[in-house]
What does this fold into?
Amino acid sequence: MKELNELIDRIADRVNVNLREPSFDAGPYIRGFISPEKFYRFYAFYGLTPDHPLRFHFRNSSLAGSYFLGKCFVEHSVLYKSDIRGDELKSRGDIFSYDGMKIPLHDDEIVLIRDSFLLKTLVHSHSNDPESPEEYQIQNTISMHYANIHGSPVEGSFLGPFSTVDLTTLHDCVIGAYAYVQVRELSHHQIEPGQVWIHVDGAFEFSYQFAKDVLDRYIRHIPGKAPEGVFMEFAENLKGEFQQVFDKVRAKPPIPVPVGAFLSNYAVVVGNSRIAENVLVAQRAYLENAWLGKGSNVQENCYIVHSTLDGNDVTAHGSKIVHSRLGKKVFVGFNSFLRGSSDFPLMIGEGCIVMPHTIVDLEESLEIPPGHIIWGHIQSRGDLEEQCLSLEDFSKIEKGTHIGRMRFQGSGEHFVNSIRHRIEHILEANGAFFDPATGANRGHAQKTQFITFNTIQPYSEGERQGLYPSIDIRP
Amino acid sequence: MKELNELIDRIADRVNVNLREPSFDAGPYIRGFISPEKFYRFYAFYGLTPDHPLRFHFRNSSLAGSYFLGKCFVEHSVLYKSDIRGDELKSRGDIFSYDGMKIPLHDDEIVLIRDSFLLKTLVHSHSNDPESPEEYQIQNTISMHYANIHGSPVEGSFLGPFSTVDLTTLHDCVIGAYAYVQVRELSHHQIEPGQVWIHVDGAFEFSYQFAKDVLDRYIRHIPGKAPEGVFMEFAENLKGEFQQVFDKVRAKPPIPVPVGAFLSNYAVVVGNSRIAENVLVAQRAYLENAWLGKGSNVQENCYIVHSTLDGNDVTAHGSKIVHSRLGKKVFVGFNSFLRGSSDFPLMIGEGCIVMPHTIVDLEESLEIPPGHIIWGHIQSRGDLEEQCLSLEDFSKIEKGTHIGRMRFQGSGEHFVNSIRHRIEHILEANGAFFDPATGANRGHAQKTQFITFNTIQPYSEGERQGLYPSIDIRP
It folds into this structure.
């Protein structure tokens, strides 16, 4: 373990240099925190398909349990059970549009992770930073349990558990637990735990701040200790189910997989679950008595328990849906937690939008009518008053409003349209609209069908224990 | 499969160019012979330990089910379920002695397989060729089921099923089924099926030729067809047992593994089997009601069924032992087939030598007294007359003799001593003499204990179906 411990120290130093301004010490978050044998107990794996450009390069790193797809470079980093999905990286020759500028790519884009420590983190999509269109870079960064880095480079930053950095370039920032930022670029900022902040310059700004007592109940994080709260307990209770899927090299799908659908070998399926055509179930998704209608997707770290999705529903990375029924084309944003029960089920009507980082944890049954948007923390019907609007009403906002703990400025119509546009893009990218007759509209669900996995393990003894050899893979 | 089929054609062409003198056509032996889906159904794997120099490089090859350890390069080749064990390769700075010459190595040695087709072939040890001490090369070569390439480069050759090339450099040779050669160097030779030939220039020569009808019963090979006979049936009957061990990424050992012993995850253990200290059981070994005494080893493709090995016994690659009891320090050479039955068991006394490629297939119970050497084809006590000698008597041969189908020339003492010397080396190399108190005499059994495996799979669709990506692995 000697070299691995040295590596962890070096990563802490790199992050601390970047975060010297807020005087942040990353050490207690990553030292002695994962029990040593876990670094060499789990294997990492990378996917190989005829449809994705192939290039993996791993050097001087520890990758326990991590998953890679697309072009990925990892150097001098510790990745623990993270999912690095580079299947939406841009290609050489593509034109990247940004604020009207057209930027042609001179190389295939790669995910480049350097001097970083990621713990169960999801890294997806591609660089939205016009300054580095060919490199989706994560550098000098620490990212804790179930954080999402989605769509932009991150440098010199600390991401708390269940936080999401979405389409936002970060330089030297601290993002608190369960905070969500989608603001294009942030530098030397400290984001409070439980803050949800979406900002498009000159167009709109949405923000919501969870109350401290609510946040503490769901996720709290004390330096040097594992995060605690409902979110952690929920994942811990079900983690045993994942062991079996990772012990096998190959397995027959546990349930039928219809035309155009994809069910990852590394997803858990228990109880009476069913998936329809064009459904995508990603690795580390969990289905229990889940019925997934045509074109729905269940992304990494999502849990669908005793629930029905009517079709073309999006459950973004890390969301959890329990005892719920979702009408068609419902969007459930990152790390949302929707928990009904058999006594108090949750119904969400067609075309609804559940904002990222929304908590619905019911004390009575609840129905969200079609075409509504919800956010914040909802336990009962009364909570809807300050945390739900019809999309029609939201679109009528012209200058701004505030409702309860939510503040909005700018054009509601612009805001709603931009979310709708994104949902359409997500469905398309995931293959929801695939037509088997013509082969048109292939997306992830179809492109990933012929995936095979290669596994990599670390040295299990000696000074390099827990570290992986250098591996370079090309087509 | 397009590119894989092209590769197979190119390999046949390369081999045919080398074998143009005997006008040999390799095509029918490798084209359309393995059913296509097998090339992408099985994964290959390479071992990683703190004790073995690490370097793997695979390019433009198909590696279905193959195993690698040590420094291995494979280019433009098809390897099907082969074991490439480079754990005895020489290191940079070593001095390689050859006929009194001292050759210092300027690089670590590598196994280099190019433009070749190996089918369930075992490649082991290192180059014994003073002309290429840093490269253990197999080039423009086809090697069929359960052939052994042991200890020297092979170029432009065809090796029949169950043949063994041992400490012998081959240039443009055809080695018949179940032939064994250990003659240092051969060029443009054709070795008849069932010929056993050991020759050390100026010292001794041993040869034995199996009768055609006997050979046909055990192994016969018609171009364009799978080999047939008792040897193939024996392996086929038990191959289902191997599936389960290859479906798991990791598994607990099925039986206790005592101090200093190593039991490969990729060995099959059924029935009431037991292994003692310092035992080595390699990948693709099969144990069924097998009791293995201290320091014994069971190498690749060996089967030990209803048998007891008293200790420090060597079962060389591919040997099979059924309903037998071996006293201490018995040596069973490559691809020997020792089959007693519950009615007619086989007993082999302490210190006996079973020559490579010996068939003992009993019609009555049989006991070989301690300190004897056997060869050829033995079914009953009467057969011993022409196929067994005490080592004492053999050592007394001064000029030569012939007994039945065996011919010997030169010094019997030299011959016996050279085998004994080799047995001692094999036991030492495998860790039979390991002392856990001091850590002295570590060998393969101990050095391999901390092995982890990485798996590699091919493209499962498209033009590259069945081919593996290029992979380069360094420490």
